[in-house]
C-alpha cells in the first residue's frame, strides 16, 4: 500500500531520483525518461476521459491503471533479480496485452476499412485520443531505446505498441464509427 504523507522530499534537488529498487539515477536517464513519458500518456488519457462516456470511459480507466503498472515495471530495473527481491516487483503481463488486442478487434469490427490516412480531429474525444496515440508512440520509442541499453519487460513494450493502435481505433469509434473521420487529401493545398 502506498502512503504519501509528504509530497516533497528534497532528495531530487541535485538532479537525481530513486528507482523502484532504491538505486539513484540522473533524472534525465533513459529509464526515467521512458517511465516519465508513460506518465505523460496517462495524463493525456485523463484529458480524453473528460469527453468519454460508458464503455469507452471504462476502458480508458483500465488503461490508466495499466499505465501506472508500466511505470512501476519500468522504474524497477534488473528483471533478472526479481526472484531475490523482498517484495515481488509489479510487471506488466501478456494478459494485459491480449485484453488490448481483444478490445481493438471488437472496436475495429464496427468500422469500414480505411481508404485514406486519418488526420487527427473530428470530435473532441477523437482529437484527444489522437493526442494519446502520439504520446504513446513516443513512450514506446523511448522504452524500445531503453531496451537497447538495459533489461526491459518485453510485455511492457508490446503493451505500448498495442496501446497506440487502441487509441487510433478508439478515435475512429469516437468519430461516429469512422463516418466523421477527417481524411487526408494528398496535395490538397498545392
Automatic annotation (TrEMBL):
Domain of life of the source: Bacteria
GO-annotated cellular components: cytoplasm
Pathway recorded for this protein: Cofactor biosynthesis; adenosylcobalamin biosynthesis; adenosylcobalamin from cob(II)yrinate a,c-diamide: step 2/7
UniProt keyword Electron transport, yes or no: no
Enzyme Commission no: 2.5.1.17
UniProt keyword annotation of Nucleotide-binding present: yes
Any Pfam family the entry gives: Cob_adeno_trans
Domain Cobalamin adenosyltransferase-like positions: 7-173
Entry keywords, A to Z: ATP-binding, Cobalamin biosynthesis, Cytoplasm, Nucleotide-binding, Transferase
Gene Ontology molecular-function annotations: ATP binding; corrinoid adenosyltransferase activity
One GO term of the biological process aspect: cobalamin biosynthetic process
Family: Belongs to the Cob(I)alamin adenosyltransferase family.
Protein name per UniProt: Corrinoid adenosyltransferase
Organism of derivation: Candidatus Rhodobacter oscarellae
Amino acid at each position: 500500500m502506498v502512503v504519501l504523507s509528504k509530497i516533497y522530499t528534497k532528495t531530487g534537488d541535485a538532479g537525481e531520483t530513486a528507482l523502484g529498487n532504491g538505486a539513484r539515477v540522473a533524472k534525465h536517464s533513459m529509464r526515467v525518461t521512458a517511465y516519465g513519458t508513460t506518465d505523460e500518456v496517462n495524463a493525456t488519457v485523463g484529458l480524453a476521459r473528460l469527453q468519454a462516456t460508458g464503455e469507452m470511459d471504462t476502458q480508458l480507466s483500465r488503461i490508466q491503471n495499466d499505465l501506472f503498472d508500466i511505470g512501476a515495471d519500468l522504474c524497477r530495473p534488473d528483471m533478472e533479480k526479481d526472484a531475490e527481491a523482498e517484495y515481488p516487483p509489479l510487471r506488466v503481463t501478456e494478459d494485459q496485452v491480449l485484453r488490448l488486442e481483444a478490445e481493438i478487434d471488437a472496436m475495429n469490427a464496427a468500422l469500414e476499412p480505411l481508404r485514406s490516412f486519418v488526420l487527427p480531429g473530428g470530435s473532441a474525444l477523437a482529437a484527444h485520443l489522437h493526442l494519446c496515440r502520439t504520446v504513446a508512440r513516443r513512450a514506446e520509442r523511448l522504452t524500445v531505446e531503453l531496451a537497447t541499453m538495459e533489461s526491459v519487460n518485453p510485455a511492457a513494450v508490446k503493451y505500448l505498441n498495442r496501446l497506440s493502435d487502441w487509441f487510433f481505433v478508439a478515435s475512429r469509434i469516437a468519430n461516429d464509427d469512422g463516418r466523421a473521420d477527417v481524411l487526408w487529401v494528398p496535395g490538397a493545398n498545392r
